[in-house]
Design goal:
mainly alpha, 2 domains, Endonuclease III, domain 1, 0% strand, DNA-binding
Amino acid sequence: MTAARTARALMQMYEAMRAHFGSQGWWPAAAGADTAEGKLEICVGAILTQNTNWNNVERAIENLRRADCLSVEALDAIRPAKLARLIRPAGYFNVKARRLKNFISAVVRGGGEIRAFLARPVCELRRALLDVNGIGPETADSMILYAAGRATFVVDAYTRRILARHRLVEGGASYDSIKRLFESALPADAELYNDYHAQLVAVGKTFCRPEARCRGCPLAGFRHEAGLRA
DNA sequence: GACCAGGCACATC
DNA sequence: GATGTGCATGGT
């Protein structure tokens, strides 16, 4: 498929998903991302949601809020064991407590101001985030898109599955190749990337399960893997 | 009880 | 570089 046709297909798929699900209102609408606390909450959520259901993440964030721990200073000061107890509902709590600490250490090393930390040039910010043990490409891009409000496409398990099923990428395509596919096909627009990713998650949750369940899917009419049409 | 969820690092080959 | 494994809770 040519680049132009891929770009057209990706935009049409977005329109179809949006027509079906409506605007998803993911971060930052939910968290008030213009404030330092909102941005930090998004970054914390990005780490807590790794391989984890969002409902569980919300419980963990609520625990942090109640314990007055949603600030760089508090997260820097808290002991790992106590942090792990607070985020327990999000699963992998020992690992994620360490990862949160690593992230906060990077922010503190950068001056301790989350807004300043996120305001650096995107390439520099992405490198800094990927240097944090426990932050991989998806978590880094989630922070850059949702907390920093910059146009970076987030690729997740749903994105891979949906694109592979619709034959836009090979099954084993790398994170960066899928990211480049979207970023070269779509205008560099943070709001679009934000909602596009949320729409893919909605399709993934509702229809594009590991076991095929395409009936009623807004993407069912698009170029599709043999045997999987609605 | 099995499977899944908005990953990542590390060991091993 | 590809593949396998550990990490853990809560919903369906």
